[in-house]
Amino acid sequence: MLHRPALPVLALTLGLALAGCIQVPELDEIGDPKAQSADYPDLIPLGPVVARSTDPVQASAELKADLTGRTAALQRRADALRQTDVLDEEARQRLLTGLGQ
Q1: For 30-54, what is each residue's pLDDT tens digit?
Q2: Closest residue by Cα to residue 63 from 52, 71, 74
Q3: Which domain does 79 fall in, by range?
Q4: Is residue 16, in this structure, part of any structural domain at all?
Q5: N or C end of the chain: which has fewer CB within 10 A?
């Protein structure tokens, strides 16, 4: 019986042995011929890209304000629904009769 510490080592060894059995294609065979003859893409400075990114603190404050507004609107809708009658009198009597009251 194998000891517990030997099982991970055995699994790793078996995994590496199986990984060695695959056929890796040559790098020349991979890719689109158009991409190989295309010009190298222009490099752009990273500074403007980072500057345009959203400030997490500001985004969090905006999200909180949006969610607070949505919460208040949903609460108003729920309060309005609580004030209305869902059943008319005939349906209410039929329901109460069915419940045995």
Answers
A1: 677 787 788 988 998 988 888 877 7
A2: 71
A3: 58-83
A4: no
A5: N
Q: Give me the torsion for CA of 71, 72, 77, 82, rounded to 10°.
A: 100
Look at the chain and report how many structural domains it folds into.
1
Residue 66 falls within a domain, yes or no? Answer: yes
Q: Residue 77 falls within a domain, yes or no?
A: yes
Report DSSP letters for 26-78, one per residue.
PGGGSS-HHHHHSPPPPP--HHHHHHHSPPHHHHHHHHHHHHHHHHHHHHHHH
Q: Which of 69-73, 76-80, 81-85 has the lowest mean pLDDT?
A: 81-85
Please state which of the ranges 7-11, 24-28, 77-81, 88-92 shows the lowest mean pLDDT: 24-28
Cα–Cα distance for residue pair 15/81, rounded to 1 Å: 61
Separation between Cα atoms, residue 89 and residue 101, nearest integer Å: 15
- The per-residue pLDDT of the chain, averaged, comes to 85
